[in-house]
Design a protein that fits this description.
This protein is of the alpha+beta class. It is 37% helix and 27% strand.
Length: 142
């Protein structure tokens, strides 16, 4: 994991005592904090884009609906929503038990993740600002 992000010119911080690297990413639509997480047992890798805003209490149901609609049909990755804190994440992951995690696999997971997160950011912000989840999904998925 460290070798991949070093070779790919990412600036990251190792989270002390945990198999987590944290980094920033500037997309076309906004800036994200990202976490790369490795598990030894079971052997898994997950990459998270953390959205730059928290969902206000009065828009949590609308965001939950938007995320449910967005996740339907997603083949690589999914949105996650912490209903308590209002935090929104996009996660891509892979289980490599019995094999090895290659740079090519990591690259696909990382770059697919940030592309989708950045693409959906304006629609998520629109829902937070009052747009209906249905309208926001129709706009982004056309």
């Amino acid at each position: 994991m460290v070798a991949f992000f070093t070779n790919d010119d990412w600036t990251f911080t190792k989270i002390q005592g945990k198999p987590i690297l944290q980094m920033g990413y500037q997309g076309e639509n906004g800036q994200f904090i990202c976490d790369a997480r490795a598990n030894e047992n079971p052997q898994q890798f997950a990459f998270y884009a953390i959205f730059p805003m928290l969902t206000p209490e009065d828009r949590k149901l609308a965001i939950a609906e938007f995320i449910t609609r967005a996740n339907y049909g997603m083949t690589i990755g999914n949105f996650e929503f912490n209903f308590d804190s209002g935090e929104i994440l996009y996660k891509t992951s892979i289980d490599v038990e019995g094999d090895r995690l290659t740079a090519a696999l990591m690259k696909r997971l990382v770059y697919t993740n940030i592309a989708i997160a950045d693409r959906y950011l304006p629609s998520i912000q629109a829902v937070i600002d009052g747009t209906s989840p249905t309208e926001a999904i129709q706009t982004i998925e056309q």
